[in-house]
Write a structure and sequence with these properties.
GO biological process, one term: proteolysis
Number of strands: 12
CATH class of one domain: Alpha Beta
GO molecular function: ATP binding; ATP-dependent peptidase activity; serine-type endopeptidase activity
Structural class: alpha/beta
Helix content: 25-40%
Number of helices: 8
CATH architecture of one domain: 2-Layer Sandwich
Oligomer: single chain
Protein name: Lon proteolytic domain-containing protein
Distance between the termini: 66 Å
Radius of gyration: 23 Å
Shape: globular
Largest sheet: 6 strands, mixed
Strand order of the largest sheet: 6-1-5-8-11-12
Order of helices and strands: HEEEEEHEHHEHEEEHEHEH
Pfam family, one: Lon_C
Length: 263
Amino acid sequence: MLSRLTRPQAVAVCALPVVALLATAVFAPLPFSVAQPGMTANVLGDNKGESVITITGADTHKTRGQLRMTTIEATGPDQDVSLSDVLDGWFRTDQAVMPRDSVYPSGDTVKEIEEHNAEEMKKSQDTATEAALNHLGEQSDDIKVTLRLADVGGPSAGLLFSLGIVDKLDGDGSGGDLTGGRNIAGTGTIDADGKVGPVGGVALKTQAARRDGATVFLVPKAECSDAKTDLPKGLRLIPVTTLKGAITALVALEKDQGSVPSC
């Protein structure tokens, strides 16, 4: 058949499957999620009309600064992402293309994912409380800490929760605020011994932090290089590996004494 066609006609016929394949690739859903900077919340303040941290059984002092946990927003697990979406995300500094399985557990329904994230947040809050009280040498039987943060899931706010509890109970340890009145943001998981773990998406979280007024960002040390990617102007990075180290760095920053680590 092709032998009966002119050269331009033959080329056109051969090109049809390629065009069809490209069209399919452009419009077919791909196994990716597109993420962007999400909301932040000051754990020392209120969120949707409720105090994020409520402490009973011990004296607390009023804090002046802010400790902002940070998030990313990603396309939903049931939302189609096309090739054009992926290409657009790759060439933008305020978006990131991530494998869907790295954002959402594979094979789960939307409801199951929401339940999983809520469970992870609850575990993170309990562990953050334990880490903070362990650091201060306090007993959980004597002090009750309630953490509330609506519409946020996952464990990445653990470090900020712990710091918020320490600030409310002990401040900088000598009568001042742990924040020094600054707007400080950050991210990182935490375990009961106060070890800080990586979380992912830090380059987007730094953008969310600076957008909402932060001038300092606490980042898990292992993610320093990621955090420096497209770092917003005016935002200072402080790498941390433990709760104790984060507190020491913030006190040094507040009092302008001692060495403050940097990425």
